[in-house]
Structure formats: C-alpha cells, structure tokens
C-alpha cells in the first residue's frame, strides 16, 4: 500500500511511520507547515509546529530511509482553524482547535492532496483503533486509555476513516517510546505537546485580546448584581474559576465559577459550582463516524473533552441535531465544545454543543 504519513516530529508519528515501513508499505513522510510567519514558531517543542519539530521529522525520515516533504498549509490552517478559533471565542463559545485541525486539515486537506497524488491512505500517530468491516471503517478507543484520542477524531467521516491508518492503536505510550529508542530515533524521549500550536507563548487570553481588542464589561452574579469587571468576554469560558478577580466576595464564602457568557450584552455571569450542573445538551451540525447515521433514540456514552470521562446518556438524533439526556448531572459544559457519542468504545458521531440546561 502507498501510504502518506503525517509526521509532526514527535515520537508517536515517528513510530507510526517506522511500523508501516517494517510492514512493507511504500511510505512517504510529510510535515505540515501551519504558521504563516515562521518567525513566530515556538521553540522548545511545546507545540506541534515548531521549526525543531520539522527538523526532527526530517531526521526520522532519513533514519527510516523514506522520502520526506514539507507541505505548506498555512493559509488553509489560518482560515479553517485560527479564524474559527477567534470567531468562536468572540461569540462566547469554547472551540477545540485540535479537533478542528483533524477535521479540516489532517484528514481533509492532506487526504485530498494525498489521494490526488496517488496515495492509498494517510497515517498518523493518533491513539485510536480502526476495525474494518466490509466497506466500513469503525473507529474505536485505543488500548491505552490514558492516551486515547478517539474523541478528537470523532468528527471524521466514513470516507475519511476508510483511507486512514492508526498504527499505534494497540500500544501504550511507554512501549512506543521504548520502540523508538530501539530504532535509534532521537525523538524517543521528546516530551509530548500540550499547548495550542498557533499560540506561541501559551497565553490564550493574550492571543485573543490581540485579535479582538479589549472590550471592558461587567461580571455579574445570578441576581444581576455587578461583582467585578472584565476586559473582554473572550477571556472566559464556562466553568472557569481562576482569573476572575472579583471585587465582591460571595455571601457564603465559596468559590464562584463562570456560568454564562453573553457577548451581545458584554457580560459574564458567575455563581456557585452547583450552577454549572446540566443534564440536557443540544448538539447541532451532527457528523457520523459510522456508515449509517444513528437516528432515533438509543442508549450510549457522551464525551465532551479530549480526556473527559464517558457519561452514560440517552441520545436522540435526527438530521437537524442531537439531543442528549445525561443519567447524572455534568459540570462545566460549554457551548462550542464537541459532543462525541459512543456505543461502548465505538465512536458513533459528533456534534457541536449549542446549549445545555
């Protein structure tokens, strides 16, 4: 099989490429240049698009003896991921840029170009399992629960999954590092990336303020009384506790959390932790990881964060959206987050949270 491997420069994608070479596939490595201004690339391998990462990926490709290229997707990344990230925060929502990147760049733009160039599949170092059943490619959780990345892949379609490979699906991270060490790959002990790759200093609030400017407004409690001020609603997300800098303490002395964000009125509402509890979630723009949309009412699991706990729920879906009723209240669920639904460890589909109550 002719396989294009997206090589980030980290240990996971490096071992994924090595395994495909060992299995006899015709492998080509590609590193994605995603930043319009290379001078703004972060250093120290804190993200997944630094200049160091590009050099690391090239060295691994040289060690494996495979062709290697750098593809410039910076304009598309800016339009589809960065601009969307800023717009979502401006609208009072909380987006997941890594999930958006998978949807629009790694498994759309890269796959589209790869297929046009004659490749059969695109492989990455994600931790997730694909089970082939006839013409269907079923996405499952990985063996390493701590590293499972099925959530951020939950937006992929059958067309994309059928042309995807995840060679690390059955391996725990410690064994991946050991394998890289045995292969002589210099990235064996390289730290994992955690930050948002296009925010070079890790300061999300500062990045958004530079993009949107400051817009001072009021922080109010659930009774509408002003208890503080803010420099812009984009600096907050539902469930946030730190950085509120409230001038008026709570009557009961307990911490307060962001309960709601209203960009139109430019207010942030805070209140007790109990005010974050929700049992009903509405999702819009549903996508399906399975071949046939799971319409109707069924029992399943909901996940709303990359490493969040699966939440038992009753799920009702149609072409217009998804309605989810949780068995037990969940806390800190924000509009804009992805609601990924599972049947056991099988990813069924995803939607964008429009509201919760």
TrEMBL record:
Keywords: ATP-binding, Cytoplasm, Disulfide bond, Nucleotide-binding, RNA-binding, Transferase, tRNA processing, tRNA-binding. Its EC number is 2.8.1.13. GO terms for cellular component: cytoplasm. GO terms for biological process: tRNA wobble position uridine thiolation. Residues 147-149 are annotated as: Interaction with tRNA. It is an enzyme of class 2 (transferase). Its main location: cytoplasm. GO terms for molecular function: ATP binding; tRNA binding; tRNA-uridine 2-sulfurtransferase activity. It is found in: Cytoplasm. The record marks 126, 337 as: Interaction with tRNA. The keyword Cytoplasm applies. The keyword Cell membrane does not apply. Signal peptide: none annotated. The active site is at 101 (nucleophile), 197 (cysteine persulfide intermediate). It catalyses: S-sulfanyl-L-cysteinyl-[protein] + uridine(34) in tRNA + AH2 + ATP = 2-thiouridine(34) in tRNA + L-cysteinyl-[protein] + A + AMP + diphosphate + H(+). ATP binds at residues 6-13, 32, 125. Residues 280-353 form the tRNA-specific 2-thiouridylase MnmA-like C-terminal domain. InterPro entries: MnmA-like, MnmA-like_C, MnmA-like_central, MnmA-like_central_sf, Rossmann-like_a/b/a_fold. Residues 207-271 form the tRNA-specific 2-thiouridylase MnmA-like central domain. Belongs to the MnmA/TRMU family. Catalyzes the 2-thiolation of uridine at the wobble position (U34) of tRNA, leading to the formation of s(2)U34. This is tRNA-specific 2-thiouridylase MnmA. It comes from Propioniciclava sinopodophylli.
């Amino acid at each position: 099989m002719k396989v294009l491997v997206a090589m980030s420069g980290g240990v996971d994608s490096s071992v994924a490429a090595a395994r495909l070479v060992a299995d006899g596939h015709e492998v080509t490595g590609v590193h994605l240049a995603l930043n319009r201004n290379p001078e703004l690339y972060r250093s120290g391998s804190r993200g997944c698009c630094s200049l160091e990462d590009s050099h690391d990926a090239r060295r691994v490709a040289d060690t494996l003896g495979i062709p290697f290229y750098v593809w410039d997707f910076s304009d598309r990344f800016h339009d589809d991921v960065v601009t969307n990230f800023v717009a979502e925060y401006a609208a009072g929502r909380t987006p997941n840029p890594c999930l958006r990147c998978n949807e629009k760049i790694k498994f759309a733009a890269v796959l589209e170009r790869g297929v046009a160039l004659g490749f059969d599949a695109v492989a990455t170092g994600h931790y997730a399992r694909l089970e082939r059943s006839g013409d269907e490619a079923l996405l499952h959780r990985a063996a390493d629960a701590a590293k499972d990345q099925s959530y951020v892949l939950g937006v992929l379609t059958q067309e994309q999954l059928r042309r995807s490979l995840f060679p690390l699906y059955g391996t725990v991270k410690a064994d991946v590092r050991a394998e890289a060490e045995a292969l002589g790959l210099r990235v064996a002990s390289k730290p994992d990336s955690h930050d948002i790759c296009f925010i070079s200093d890790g300061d999300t609030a500062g990045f958004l303020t530079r993009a949107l400017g400051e817009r001072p407004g009021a922080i109010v409690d659930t009774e509408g009384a002003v208890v503080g001020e803010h420099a812009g609603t984009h600096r907050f997300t539902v469930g946030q506790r730190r950085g509120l800098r409230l001038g008026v303490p709570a009557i009961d002395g307990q911490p307060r959390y962001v309960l709601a964000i209203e960009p139109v009125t430019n207010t942030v509402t805070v209140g007790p932790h109990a005010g974050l509890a929700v049992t009903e979630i509405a999702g819009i723009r549903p996508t399906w990881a399975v071949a046939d949309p799971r319409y109707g009412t069924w029992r399943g699991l909901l996940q709303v964060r990359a490493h969040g706990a699966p939440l038992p729920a009753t799920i009702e879906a149609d072409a217009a959206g998804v309605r989810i009723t949780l068995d037990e209240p969940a806390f800190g669920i924000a509009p804009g987050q992805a609601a990924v639904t599972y049947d056991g460890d099988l990813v069924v589909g995803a939607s964008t949270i429009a509201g919760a109550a």
